[in-house]
Amino acid sequence: MDTDYKYEPKNGLTRWLDSRLPLMRFTSEHVLQFPTPKNLNYFWTFGFILTMCLVTQIITGIILAMHYAPSTLLAFDSVEHIMRNVNYGWLIRYIHSNGASMFFLAVFIHMFRGLYYGSYKEPREVIWILGCIIYLLMIVTAFMGYVLPWGQMSFWGATVIINLVGTLPLIGESLTQMLLGGFAVDNPTLNRFFSLHYLLPFIIFGVVLLHIWALHVPGNNNPVGLSVQGKQDTVAFHPYYTVKDFFAYTVFLLLFCYFIFYNPNALGHADNYIEADAMVTPAHIVPEWYLLPFYAILRAVPDKLAGVLLMFGAIAVLFFLPWLDTAKVRSGRYRPIFRYFYVLFVIDCLILGYLGAQVPEGIYLFLSRVTTIYYFAFFLLVLPILGRIEKMKPMPIGISNSELSRDMVAAE
Amino acid sequence: MSDTLDDDKPTRRDFLYITTGAFGVVGAASVAWPLIDQLNPDASVKAVSTVEVDISSIEPGSFLKVAWRGKPIYIRRRTNEEIADAEKDDNLNLPDPQKDIDRVQKKEWLVVVGVCTHLGCIPIANQGEYEGWFCPCHGSHYDISGRIRKGPAPTNLEVPPYEFVSDSLIKIG
Predict the structure, then answer these.
(1) Residue B122 to residue A279, Cβ atoms within 8 A
(2) How far apart are alpha carbons A263 and A371 in whole angstroms?
């Protein structure tokens, strides 16, 4: 985004530094003075919240790695050691384990915001795709992290997920053995998962930088979805959005702290406090809550390979969203029919999440088929067709006039 | 010099680029292979010894669960009624058609790998609609011959390589 603001070094030292490493110029132009649409609502604070989630996970994760032992003989005990012996170990582990859930909660809100306000549309397609890559990396990282405590759910969750790869024709079996480092989930698997679980957050961090870089080319989308037309539409990021972001993050921390201090195991499974046993499967294997919608899709199909393909397809379809949605109008505010389908889609995802935790029989199986069909129909039918036939509501002329023209529409 | 810039013919320099590039790719691939191959099962994992199991204590109608290659093996001593049940269903339209006699060495003894062919959970014995095995993860039902009858699993429970060393001793692997 072209900024009218240009950084001017104030004294000899900053002038000297600016001509050698323009760090202060970069900070000033891309953080402090960055022109940001003045009409952003609280849904736009989740980018900052997510950054804080990532930083929290990295800090607590590095500390946990100082006390954890990645070996099938020691892993379970070392986690209990962290919980009982290490000073504040319980706190750091509860922050890390609940932090993963909060991370996903924030990313879901962030993605649904982008979906409603059309933040993936031209010229922000690359931002959206980088976001999808981050989301995919988050899933892989969280899955590997869940294996590390070496409880029953860790072990059997890993068994089920890695066996998904085995459904691929021809290469499936050898690829499964390569991922496992053996014929079943065992010490080699645990060791490599630990290594990768430590690596991937830094990869995520790198993609986040690309995500923000791509964001800073066109600048933020906003609730009316119109492009910024000039200075009258923006305010400086600092102090206006730094304050707003920190306030939102503080509220977010209240929920986070509720889980950490009052209900730290609410989002986990009791079975994971039983050490992994390769000879006994728990009666009911359930993934973490944030993977449940995809688990429901996997189980909705009677055919093994088709179920796996649909589950991966549910994420893959997100990458094509910028081209599946044919509507030129970005914001859902001006798309009267889209709004109904959108709300239905949010409800559909919530129901899929609920169904992922149920036994796939009877009414649950039927419902998971219906919701799976709508999940894909939303992307592959509703969005491509609706964009061509929907009659949009009157749009404001610009961001600055949007509040005014909303009143005019209401008066009509 | 015969090589001129406006000549469309490949030049000696093009040849150098291509050969250098090709050597680079082969070199990079040969270095990458050890980095990838280390993921595969190592010598200690592959050097799995065979397991010998004393089956004399198994009563008819009951089973023994033993570990082999980190996976459970069900050794089931079937009653005459169970054998009859299994053979009765031989000609039904099964998802993965196989006769009971092709899955056993001695009719009385059924030996199967206790890993669901769907996604690798351990099916529970004596449960499910066919009284064989039931996988709690995604609801696959197996019959008394370990054949898939209902649910998402695509194939029958695998029969591992095994032999009877004597009437009371079985060697798996």
Answers:
(1) yes
(2) 31
pLDDT in tens, B95-127: 888 888 899 999 889 999 998 888 788 898 888
| Statement to judge: residues A249 and A294 lie in one domain | no
Note whether A136 and A165 are same-domain residues: yes
Which CATH number covers residue A369?
Answer: 1.10.287
| Residues A219, A177 share a domain | yes
B124 contacts A285? CB cut-off 8 A: no
Given a contact cutoff of 8 angstroms between Cβ atoms, the answer to whether B140 and B148 are in contact is yes
**What confidence tier does B7 reach under pLDDT thresholds 50, 70, 90?**
low
Between strands A234-236 and B140-142, the pairing is: unpaired
Find the closest chain A residue to B72 by CA distance.
A279
Q: What is the CATH classification number for the domain harbouring A233? A: 1.20.810.10
Chain A: closest CA distance from residue B18 (Å) = 32
The mean per-residue pLDDT over the stretch A260-265 comes to: 97
Counting residues of chain A whose pLDDT is more than 90, the rounded percentage is 83
Is B136 an interface residue toward A (CB < 8 Å)? Answer: yes
Residue A18 maps to a domain = no
Q: Give the global pTM.
A: 0.89
| Chain B CB contacts of A297 below 8 Å | none
Number of structural domains found in chain A: 2
Residues in chain A within 8 Å Cβ distance of B40: 177-178, 181
Q: Which burial class, exposed, middle or buried, applies to A202 when counting CB atoms under 10 A from its CB (0-12, 13-18, 19+)? A: exposed
pLDDT tops 70 at residue A380: yes
The single-letter code of the amino acid at A64 is L
Backbone angles phi, psi at A53, to 5 degrees: -60, -45
The answer to whether residues A260 and A340 belong to one domain is no
Q: Is residue A273 part of a domain?
A: no
Shared domain check, A243 and A297: no
* DSSP assignments along A16-63, one per residue: HHHTT-THHHHHIIIIIS-EEETT--GGGGHHHHHHHHHHHHHHHHHH
**In terms of CA atoms, which chain A residue is nearest residue B40?**
A178
Report how far residue A295's alpha carbon sits from residue A387's, in angstroms, rounded to the nearest whole number: 30
- Structural domain contains residue A386: yes
Q: Which residues of A touch B138 (CB under 8 A)?
A: 299, 360
Is the Cβ pair B41, A181 closer than 8 Å? yes
Residues A171, A50, single domain; the answer is yes
Residue pLDDT, tens place only, B30-86: 999 999 999 998 888 877 667 888 988 888 888 998 888 888 999 999 999 889 888
Length of chain A in residues, anyone? 412
pLDDT given at position A412: 46
Tell me whether residues B122 and A280 touch, CB distance under 8 A. Answer: yes
Q: Are residues A256 and A291 in the same domain?
A: no
A chain contacts of residue B51, beta-carbon cutoff 8 Å: none
Per-residue pLDDT reduced to its tens digit, A27-71:
999 999 999 999 999 999 999 999 999 999 999 999 999 999 999
pLDDT at B42: 87
Do A353 and A304 share a domain, yes or no?
Answer: yes
B118 as an active site residue: the answer is no
Model ipTM value: 0.76
Containing structural domain, residue A294: 287-390
